[in-house]
Structure prediction request, 528 residues.
Amino acid sequence: MPISTTNLGELFHSSVIKNPNKIALIDVESGIEISFQQLETNTAKVRSILDSLNISKGDRIALFFPNQIEFLYALFGSMRAGAVPVLINIELPIETCSYIARDSGASLIISSSQKNIFQKAIQAAQSSKISNILVPCDEKDRLPADSSDLTFHNLSRLMDIAVPLSGSVEVLSNDAAFQSYTSGSTGNPKGVVLTHGGSAWNASTICKFHRLQESDRAIVAAPMYHSNALNGAIKPMLLVGGSTVILRGFDSKKMIKSIDKFKVTYLRGVPAMFKLLVDDTDSLSKYDVSSIEWAVSGSSSLPESLITSFERIFNASMGMAYGLTEGGPIVTLSPRDGTRKLGSSGVPLPGVITHIIDPTTNKKLPHGDIGELIISSPGLASYHNLPDIEKSTFELIGSSRFLHTGDLAYIDNQGFHYIVGRIDDMMNVGGENVYPAEVESLLSTHPSVRDVCVISLPHSIKGSAPVALVIADEISEEELKQFALNNGPAYAHPRRVLFVPKLPLSGTGKIDRIAAKNMALQHFPDPL
Prediction:
């Protein structure tokens, strides 16, 4: 039975009470530093403004923002009003952003004044019959003239005169807190609703599991609307009373310089980011990064060679995380103390139950066997208006609700989890199952290989076969293929190697495997 719980918009309430003048947020680009009390006041003002616009519990509010502090005012202010903020991936095409606004049923948009983002917000409003857009902007930024069906409000001006509205709308543990959208390889993005109780549990558990303290400082460069930054760093820091340094985007020199300037202790990012950091020897020679104590990589697999390089250069421990939006979102983490295993995404958070099952029979598999990972946790989400997908993705086993992740993994006899790829990415090579992550891990051990992505292409005899897109120094295709043959099973070696200057990345820093496959097909259009 659902119980009353603290509104997630009040996540940093105890930090405000304990250390009101402590810096909570630092915007590197603008130089603005916001204390917990200022964060509280501005969030309460947004709630007051939403109240004046008759926003009700359960109303959806679409947020169009890059990495800027106003995003957090809007996020937490919306939740305090009982509304459900819808986090828009601003890297998506205008048509997709408009679809999300329509699908979510948003009744209001809060948008950055940044021109390209603002234009997406306007089109989304027009296609969704949304009549109001709130925009934080300076007096010099001129908003468009109101039309008969669309009114623009200067949020900054409204906040200047607003009276903070303390407190928040009462919520139950399973009430919707915020809504994200996951992009699949086909079709439209799916709305995923996370709850107040589940999201608070996830943030609190991460803090305890990784021993985060109010003296910690995190830095984020990944998009704040994405789980890696929001759930992996920002929410835990706000809850524990730490500080978060915000970069508008990733630049290795800016990040290294900011680590030195702000004495950052905690790094949260994706493999591509960490790779660029360790490769930026020029910046590392100029700035002091010795304040870093702990780093966690998520969103995609991390080569063992990169972990080794990072720990040597930064003299700090590095772990991995695994999660997915539907999962609450963080599911497993590497322990900060004690055993950490290379290649493993760690162990389940306390409260999380995991099993490995045969995807065809649903039978539970023993330790060491590869199968589909299914999970149950207090943070499990649900889909927005997708009852058929909800039914096929979530399953009641006994008294527990489980999520079928679609990820292939195995668990060793100590409970450490290893993600080997998506079920959809697995290739059958002449009857043998080949997992891209395992081939990538093998190729990454070659000293000349700096980054790699393995995809499947049609093979005239084997049905399908691995092809590797590689960033490397002074190595030939034949040498790398021979290395794979010498160090791994013959059936898993890449039949073609395509050397590229960079790998295609999504807006959230993951390798874009669809784009990578299209690149390979341009070079190898016929069956191998």
Q: What stands out?
A: DSSP finds 16 helices and 29 strands in the chain. The chain has a mean pLDDT of 91.
